[in-house]
Amino acid sequence: MHIKEFWDQLSSDTQQWLIDNPGTMIVPRTVTAIINGETGESDTVDAHGGTQLTDEDRHFIRDQARRAG
Questions:
Q1: What DSSP string runs through 4-60?
Q2: pTM for the whole thing?
């Protein structure tokens, strides 16, 4: 997943979840389903329905958390 590319497509609730969980490595399937619905993406889902975030994704989310804080 490339959170940076899709950030503006995410709802404020979804953005807030990511900001509140900046260290998460795997986005739970419920949040992944919301993100996929908001962005139209679905190719990043693992066998359990979650999404593993890249180092770049986590760095971007931490930057967003710092800006929000």
A1: HHHGGGS-HHHHHHHHH-TT-SEE-HHHHHHHHHHH---TT--TTS-EEPPHHHHHH
A2: 0.86
Q: Which domain holds residue 54?
A: 3-68
Taking each helix axis as running N to C, give the angle between helix 12-20 and helix 29-39, from 0 to 180 degrees, rounded to the nearest 10. Answer: 140
- Taking only the tens place, the pLDDT of each residue in 15-46 is 999 999 988 999 999 999 999 999 988 767 77
Per the structure, the count of domains in the chain is 1
- Strands 51-52 and 26-27 come out as antiparallel
